[in-house]
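Re: the 418-residue chain
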Amino acid sequence: MRLAALKPGDTLMLASGNYGITAGGADTGSVPGLPIFNLNGTAAAPITITGPATGPMPVLMGRSTHNTVRFSNASHVVVRRLEVNGRDLGGAGVAVQGPCNNITIEDCYLHGFGDDQQTVAISTTGQPTWGWIVRRNLIVGAGTGMYFGNSTGDSPFVAGLVEHNVVRDTIGYGMQVKRQAAWGSVPAGMPAGATTTIIRHNVFAKSGNSSTGDLARPNLLVGDCPPSGPGSSNGFAIYGNLLFENPSEGLFQCEGNVAFYANVLVTSGSALRVQTHDGSVRNIRIFHNTVVAGGSGIVVSGGAAGTTQRVFANAVFAGGTTVSVTSAGGSAADNVTDVRANAPGYLGNPLAAMPGLDLFPKAGMLKKTALDMSSISAHPDWNRDFNGAAYDSAFRGAYSGEGVNPGWTLAISTKPAA
């Protein structure tokens, strides 16, 4: 079956092996990579391009002349179980070069994008994109793991779902969603009303290859929505993620409208900072997170007029400031805080290296007075803890329970579904 002939409901199975090079390792003369142009499935009958369900994945070899998986004028396409090897030649792994929406990238392995901090494994720069699902992928050693939007604010990324990925050892961002300028026009089909991009159950971990100084970047950063007009009420729900280590920057930074909850953050440096970046700090909700940091824990500043920033029901252990909220519309309440050195008195084994790292509460330490959580009940899975269990609002931090952790053992690997 030819790629260009695919129609709604079709599945193209790629056999295992190397694509783009000869048996001797030389580049082939054919167009490299996977150009997904003018392919449009439907919501009920997507077009699927996949490797075998088991065994070795097909390997798409990158080139310096092209990005490897390329989308243009495409919609409702699923790309599954492919290995994308950029060979450190400078091309992106997955990129858009024309309008596209409702694209799914899942169960892929992307590597060989570490030649420069600006080289990206998955990128939507240059086009408005919406309805993307990025799920259960492994991204290793990229310059930037995922980069959605554009530094100029002109490439909206709307109503996305990013879940159960592992992004490790990036030079710069593990993931960034850029702030958005006012939309000059709304492409046909793109949601113009309020939408939420969900970032959940991922692992974002950095290591000693991270950039330092002016090039240092957080593991995860999300930017502002458009300042007015369509999309100006959009936001993020970020929950159930493990953010682990960053030797030169904070783990998470945000502005805009963000709910950040049931996450686990562990680092020798600083953990979480809310501040203006390229836009404005708007309505922020930070709750039910567990933070163990050598530097500061949760720091909130800025805040546009008429917005509120609430930090509550977290468990924060930090070598520097534990919780600081200085924005005019901000408040902090009902958090458990202490210095990092005292964290072992509250948590299972919070200063250990993996696989022994354990942030589950010790008996009697993080159960306090039950809180009224009705104000955050509109957020997805608002009443679930880091393990996906029902949340007892008397607990502080990412876990609901105490004693022995019945859920996932923290690791730099795919977080299983609850």
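The radius of gyration is 21 Å.
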